[in-house]
Amino acid sequence: MGSCPPAIQDYWGYLIEPDNTPSPRLEELLLGIAHYISKEVAPWHVRCLSPTKLAAFYKLVGGNYDVVFLETSHSGLAYIYRALGCYHTLQPVQNPFAAPSIPALTPEGFVRWQTIQILLGPNEHVSFLQEALKTLEIKDPTDRQPFPKILPRSAFPAEADPEMTKWHDMTLGRLQTEEKGQGAIEHGIGGAVEEDDCASCSSADERSTTDGTPFVKVRPKLSPLRPTSYSRAKTVPPTVLKSSIKDSVHHLRLRDHRRKFSE
Fold first, then answer.
1. Burial letters 123-148, b for 16+ CB under 10 A, else e
2. Which residues lie closer than 8 Å to 67 by C-beta, 6 or more apart?
3. 22, pLDDT greater than 70
């Protein structure tokens, strides 16, 4: 794998399985990043993977996903998570009388979210992981030891996954059709976005047993990430096709950023 030392190459191996699921090593890395975001990324009083914390994380590693996490309504972002099969919870807002509405990824949901991003935009998203390892203290959740600072690019696919690309192209076609028959404005870009972040929330991997040892949750096996696994999810919010669609689709990697979307 390139010019990386053999020991580093052996440590990482190839990080995407034949069925497009993350390898155990990649899953550990992404869970480690999720844990870092939960504890070390502002706002610090929030301990779940809220939209605000995820937006801040991507900026730390050289990206800008504000259009996804800060400019999309809570209901729209939750719909996107459901469409992609990403585990998430709805967290309370500052108003104690309002229903919980802030979508927060679980650690397992973040693993799936980030794996999908890698499959649809490997060059950009692998660079995010490389920057995270290089500049942040990301630890293996199994033994709490830091990961190596070097992550070989060759541990990931060289190009976007063609099956995934085909799936999201078909998804966009369905979006155009559904937009004509649905008016769910609250589900898309431009809907009302709560200014307040989560009032309080916690991540499952932060709990402890009665003797103080870390609680290690038994993680469900992630379903394959091939397009067929989305058969029940249908599509992302119809109004993602509104005025901000080109930006949101680019940042969500719902189509190849090298091709221009024509309405």
1. eebbbbbbebbeebebbebeeeeebe
2. 189, 244, 247, 248, 251
3. yes
Phi, psi of 171 (to 5 degrees): -60, -40
User: What's the pTM value of the predicted model, to 2 decimals?
Assistant: 0.75
Give pLDDT, residue 186. Answer: 40
Q: Is the pLDDT of residue 45 over 80?
A: yes
d(CA 197, CA 187): 18
SS3 at position 214: strand
Backbone angles phi, psi at 16, to 5 degrees: -120, 125
Environment class of 8 (CB within 10 Å of its CB; exposed 0-12, middle 13-18, buried 19+): middle
Burial of 211 (0-12, 13-18, 19+ CB in 10 A): exposed
For 58-68, the pLDDT digits (tens) are 999 999 999 99
